[in-house]
Write a structure and sequence with these properties.
Strand order of the largest sheet: 2-3-4-1-5
CATH superfamily of the largest domain: P-loop containing nucleotide triphosphate hydrolases
Largest sheet: 5 strands, parallel
Shape: globular
Order of helices and strands: HEHHEHEHEHEHHHHHHHHH
Bound molecules: zinc ion
Helix content: 40-55%
CATH architecture of the largest domain: 3-Layer(aba) Sandwich
CATH class of the largest domain: Alpha Beta
Strand content: 5-15%
Length: 327
């Protein structure tokens, strides 16, 4: 099986497979759509596949197929009894971890999407991750490391898969959607950089995402010419908090690209959906870009505190597209 754009994961796993000794606990981080769940399953396949070759799981043996379809008895996905994992959810995993594997020599626990879990829930995992039963492996995933306690991090191999790679993303789309016109694939890659998950959502017909990308582009363009009025108009009128936050995240990516351009880094590392506006923004002083980025992340935090979205949008527009403080 091929893993696109995730050398940070596939290379160390291949090396461990070669040596026959795997780390028992993994923390995989990456932004939404980066492919954390795929990466977690890939890791489980590396551990359970009966025919690993060239440092990759085969993808077709009985073990691989059952992992891919989510029915492998030794690849267990933790379940959330509430919105996030509770202490009891984790205790269930720990109890299960001390029983023997069903079919294989190893068993793997996928504890994905750990955001929002309590310190107590994590603490329940500390003992077992420090001294895990021989056949047992844990794979945790989360958006970033702030989700995890330092003690859990210190016991795990941390792998960040955020790094977007536009070439790998195009290759994935060519392989997965061989019949789609090239323009469509390019449009998706342009909209979401190298984020394979987002590109797939777009190609699978998520028009809402397309609308969001369009709004981000209009806002970024307004920021580039200090058109506060247009920025406010585009940013306001979104009713859904998560959608609004998602849009702020996409704007952050554009501002980040502008900073990358300013530093003269490699073009391959762009992640935003509007390279044109990023190029214009890169003419701004670095301090202005930092201030824009801070305003975006601050507003995203406000969204979590039940603020009024339209007021937040108006305030944000002033901060990121206003002329004040910017000459
Ligand atoms: Zn296999």
């Amino acid at each position: 099986m091929k893993l696109y754009s995730k050398q940070t994961l596939s290379v160390p796993l291949a090396a461990m497979s070669e040596s026959g000794r795997f780390v028992h606990s993994y923390i995989i981080t990456g932004e939404k759509g980066a492919g954390k769940k795929t990466a977690a399953k890939y890791t489980a396949m590396m551990l359970l596949c009966s025919d690993v070759h060239d440092g990759r799981p085969c993808g077709v043996c009985r073990e691989c197929r059952r992992i891919l379809s989510g029915v492998h008895p030794d690849c267990i996905s933790a379940e959330k009894s509430k919105k996030s994992y509770s202490v009891d959810d984790m205790r269930d995993i720990v109890t299960d971890a001390y029983t023997s594997p069903n079919d294989c020599d190893r068993k793997v626990y996928l504890i994905t999407d750990c955001g929002g879990w309590s310190d107590a829930a994590q603490a329940a995992m500390l003992k077992v991750t420090e001294d895990p039963p021989d056949p047992v492996y844990f794979i945790f995933t989360g958006d970033d490391l702030s989700v995890f306690l330092p003690t859990l991090i210190s016991r795990s191999m941390v792998i960040d898969i955020t790094t977007a790679d536009r070439d790998a993303c195009m290759e994935y789309m060519h392989d997965t959607y061989p019949d789609r016109p090239e323009e469509e694939l390019i449009r998706a890659a342009d909209a979401f950089g190298g984020n394979i998950g987002r590109c797939t959502e777009l190609l699978e017909g998520d028009e809402k995402l397309l609308d969001l990308a369009e709004r981000v582009r209009r806002t970024a363009a307004a920021c580039a010419v200090c058109d506060e009025y247009t920025a406010a108009a585009v940013l306001s009128g979104i009713r859904d908090r998560d959608v609004f936050r998602q849009m702020l995240g996409m704007l952050c990516a554009v501002v980040r690209d502008a900073a990358v351009m300013k530093s003269g880094a490699q073009p391959g590392s762009y992640i935003g959906c509007d390279r044109g506006s990023a190029a214009k923004l890169s003419a701004f002083p670095a301090s202005r870009l930092i201030q824009m980025y801070d305003s975006l992340t601050y507003t995203a935090q406000l969204c979590g505190l039940n603020c009024n979205l339209d007021s937040a949008a108006a305030m944000l527009a002033g901060r990121i597209a206003g002329r004040k403080g910017h000459i």
